[in-house]
């Protein structure tokens, strides 16, 4: 709601106007001190109110902060805005490389930890509204703890290893 005061001939017009949508048409009809009524079209009392765009908001619903993962896991959440949520973006540790999540008001993203080294990571999420305004960044931390896979490449399966024989492993 906006409070508007317009000077008139020896009078002022005070109005409370709800601003629910961008570029809302606002009309005024007033009576001056001299008893003259405006007809809104001839007296120049028509105006345009402009909506002030608020930043969208984003929330990470799952996982909780400081969890440990191996394999794949889902990140889910919600986003909201006073106009329209257009997109939600995710990045891991690097704030320059943002990836588009699936969905907008409710969103998700699958993380494959096999592409990450073991260690601590920061997961950042932000949303963008239809006006191009970004939310604040919401963050959690998570730890990747993948169990290494080890395979014996030689000697072959069923071979007998004696004394100075070499065993080659991969992993």
Rg over CA atoms, rounded to whole Å, is 31 Å
Largest sheet features: 5 strands, mixed
* Count of beta strands: 15
Low-confidence stretches: 8-14, 16-23
Order of helices and strands: EEEEEEEEEEEEEEE
Shape estimate? rod-shaped
Features:
about 170 residues, mainly beta, 5-stranded mixed beta sheet, 4-stranded antiparallel beta sheet
Written overview of the protein:
The chain has 171 residues and is mainly beta. The protein has no helices and 15 strands. It starts with a strand and ends with a strand. Mean pLDDT is 79; it is low at 8-14 and 16-23.
Question: How does the SSE layout of this entry go?
Answer:
Layout: E1 2-8, E2 11-17, E3 24-26, E4 47-49, E5 57-62, E6 67-69, E7 72-80, E8 85-92, E9 99-100, E10 102-103, E11 106-112, E12 119-129, E13 138-144, E14 151-154, E15 168-170
Parallel strand pairs: 6-13
Antiparallel strand pairs: 1-2, 3-4, 5-7, 7-11, 8-9, 8-12, 10-11, 12-13, 14-15
Short description:
This protein has 171 residues and is mainly β. The chain has strands at 2-8, 11-17, 24-26, 47-49, 57-62, 67-69, 72-80, 85-92, 99-100, 102-103, 106-112, 119-129, 138-144, 151-154, 168-170.
